Each structure stands twice: as C-alpha cells, then as structure tokens.
User: Fold this.
Amino acid sequence: MYTILDLYDLEHTLAADYLRGFTYPWEALKGIKDMILALGPTLGEDYEERSEHVWVHKTAKVFPTAYLGAPCIIGPETEVRHCAFIRGSALVGANCVVGNSVELKNVILFDHVQTPHYNYVGDSILGYYSHMGAGSITSNVKSDKKLVVVHNGTECLETGIKKFGAMLGDYVEVGCNAVCNPGTVIGRHSNVYPTSCVRGVVPEHSIWKNNGEIVHKEER
Assistant:
C-alpha cells in the first residue's frame, strides 16, 4: 500500500521514468534536483528557459510576484500565483495550481495537483489530482532531527533520510490546516479531516479523522 506503483499512476508526470527506478517513493527524494537538471534540456520548444535551469511551459501562467528558484519545471496550463515561493528542485506538472504564498521545495507534483492557499510542501511527492486545503502543510523534519521512519501499524520502515514530508497518492484530499508529519504516506482516494495531525500510513479509500481514527470509505 505504499510503493510507488501502489500510490501513483505514472502516466501523469514527467518524472515517470525516474520514479520507475525505485520501489518506495521516498527513495526518489534525494535525486529530484539531478533529475530536473537532466530533464529540463530535453523538454523541447514548448518550454522556455526563463532563467538558468528554470523551464516554464508557454501555456503556464506565472504571476509577476512569484519566485521560481532553480532548478524547476512548470508544466502546461499550470498557474503559479502571487507570492508563491518555489525554492528549487520542484517538478510541477500540467494543470496544477501553486497558490498565494505557497512554498515548494524538493518536490514532485503530478498533473492536476492543487496547493492553492498558504501551503508548505517540502521533500514530498503529490499524486495525480491530489489537493491540499488552505493552510495544510507537510512537516519534513522531526523535532529530534532523527532519521524518518514510516510506521504502518506495528511495521516500521527505516528510510535512512532526515528530510521526508509526505507521500500523497492519487486523488488524496487533505483538509484545511492539517499537518502531515514526517513520514506520512496516504493511499489513493483517501481523505484527511481539517485540522488533523497525520502520521504513518493511511490506507487507500480511507478517512483520517481528527482523533487519529481511520475508517474505510463506504462504497456508494
């Protein structure tokens, strides 16, 4: 429930070939910068290199006050709105929204991802059509600065990395002002209640409630 193929449809990202080289999504975090640097020059004439190692599709809309740090790729029909801060090492797919005062750092956003209002997304991968409500963030470093461990019930997966935010599967909905703690993995089509503090693995087709209770979505 937490491998790359469990979480993501790779048809919806330019990082597909790169991600296929790993089993778990967090294994891909260390190489995002190098992947973007290698991918950028191959994108073709539909992309403009607006500054060194910053590639923006001609149909993307980048507001004047947004900051695009290198390296990054901004996909077709994507909006990067006022005061967005892309610190670098960000691959943003097609038809995405990077909203007001949103900060991105070392991330892959699949196509149709929305981070529209006051979000921090760092050292994370957000799947196709995933959405982060206003004020929701990924917390990417533990308070004790130890290496991140992914907890799935009684199972513990050592990641060997210090910075690891959240892996959101396709069609995940994160409610307003929720915090995804380091090592959070949320399966496809799952929801997180607003103001929640999430950690560990949330199975696909589930709901994480405010008290940490996880319930399976009923079929409709």
Q: What stands out?
A: The mean pLDDT is 96. Residues 187 and 204 are 4 Å apart (CA to CA). Helices lie at 4-7, 16-19, 32-39. Residues 32-39 form the longest helix (8 residues).
